[in-house]
Design brief:
single chain; FAD/NAD(P)-binding domain; 8-stranded mixed β-sheet; 4-stranded antiparallel β-sheet; globular
């Protein structure tokens, strides 16, 4: 079967959904092809014994500019975490929270033992500019995060026990080699917004974007090749188009021969159902002793809809390279929460080996999306590895397609 449309978009993750919806609203005939059985790409949710288990621990930060612009956050009914973290150190724990948004935790923060005035002053001086003039920071010189923190004089317990383990989970990488500019952008988003979870799981985000499509995505369609012309080869035939947008992750885009391979960071997340009674302070817990777990949280404390009555849902996440067994992950959870986990039920384990593109200095946050010959590529590997980057990339690529089809060579952006 051979047919022709204006645009074919391959992949119905966040970037593909954003791109396709934008092009359809501009009057183009767009076919959105998705290999999976539902939209969302890496943003998916499984229902296991009445629990909502996102595929990998993910959070939606309402402070992301693209989320503010393109997402109806109120409709998602976010259950928010607290603006702070709990730090496990041996058999003791400490709490560090933003006094502006969690003033009730100020006494715990003051008693945490983490408030070295020199380190706080150095951290404030380093992070401060990205809150006020982010464009200037992004235009500046980049270097590995470990080097940047050394130069800034941030080398105490706040760095070792809080900042580095926290960022490892966000970056899906050992943070020392990550881009310092991107790390500062991430910290900016956490300081400006409090992440949360949709009432119906993270799947609600792509579902909302899909609702804006004028023609729904075609699921269960695996693309086996993309050719100049351009055209898309599937198991059922070839589709010719005026433009083809590959909106897959970096691994699949490289597999189609469109972009060079990009290093990816992997995460493994275990979802446990625990008897009710876990702490409900809505704080993410990080390991100040730098064990294999990068974060763990009582997810149902922030979003009660994630667990049935009488149960608590606990996530435990490590870098993929940690290689923990299920029993070892359960033991680590028991140590971190200082509780007996023998009555915990393992619901599902998610090995997301290609969770996020890795960022390295210098940060290249605007990679080309127009490859010529009617071929385009978008996704978080073209902008920044985040929900923000995926949404921005989808919109940016749609604008590039519109310019190309209109015969314009001018530049522009979303």
């Amino acid at each position: 079967m051979v047919n022709e449309v204006d645009v074919v978009v391959v992949g119905a993750g966040l970037a593909g959904l954003m791109c396709a919806a934008t092009l359809q609203r501009r009057g183009l005939e767009v076919r959105l092809l998705e290999a999976g059985d539902t939209v969302g790409g890496r943003v998916r949710t499984e229902v296991v014994d009445g629990h909502l288990c996102d595929v990998g621990f993910q959070l939606l930060n309402p402070a992301y500019p693209a989320v503010k612009k393109f997402v109806d956050v109120d409709a998602l009914k976010l259950g928010a975490f607290q603006a702070g973290v709990r730090i496990r150190r041996g058999t003791e724990s400490a709490v560090l929270a933003d006094p502006r948004r969690a003033p009730q935790l100020l006494p715990s923060t003051l008693g945490s033992g983490l408030l070295d005035l020199r380190e706080i002053a150095a951290l404030t001086k380093w992070v401060g500019p990205v809150l006020v003039t982010p464009d200037r920071v992004m235009a500046g010189a980049d270097q590995p995060l470990g080097t940047a923190l050394d130069v800034a004089g941030i080398h105490g317990r706040l760095r070792r026990e809080v900042l580095e383990p926290f960022l490892a989970g966000v970056l899906a990488d050992e943070p020392g080699s990550a881009s310092s500019i991107f790390a500062r952008l991430l910290l900016r988003s956490f300081l400006l917004g409090t992440p949360g979870l949709p009432e119906d799981g993270m799947r609600a985000l792509p579902a909302q974007l899909a609702a804006h499509l004028l023609q729904p995505a075609e699921t269960g369609v695996r693309v086996v090749g993309v050719d100049p012309g351009p055209s898309v080869r599937t198991a059922s035939g070839t589709v010719h188009a005026r433009a083809v947008v590959v909106a897959t992750d970096a691994v699949d885009a490289a597999g189609l021969g469109l972009v060079p391979a990009h290093p990816m960071g992997g995460l493994t997340t275990w979802w446990f159902s625990a008897p009710a009674g876990m702490p409900h302070d809505r704080l993410l817990l990080v390991d100040g002793d730098r064990g294999p777990v990068v974060n763990t949280a009582v997810v149902s404390a922030a979003a009660p809809s994630y667990a049935p009555a009488g149960r608590d849902l606990v996530e435990v996440t490590t870098l993929s390279a940690a290689g923990l067994t299920d029993d070892a992950a359960r033991a680590e959870a028991g140590r971190l929460w200082q509780t007996d986990t023998r009555e915990w039920d393992l619901l599902v384990r998610h090995d997301v080996t290609h969770a996020l593109p890795l960022t390295r200095a210098p940060l290249d946050r605007r990679r080309p999306v127009d490859l010529g010959d009617g071929l385009f590529v978008c996704g978080d590997h073209r902008d920044t590895p985040s929900l923000q980057g995926a949404l921005v990339s989808g919109r940016r690529t749609a604008n590039a397609v519109l310019r190309r089809l209109a015969g314009s060579t001018g530049s522009g952006d979303a």
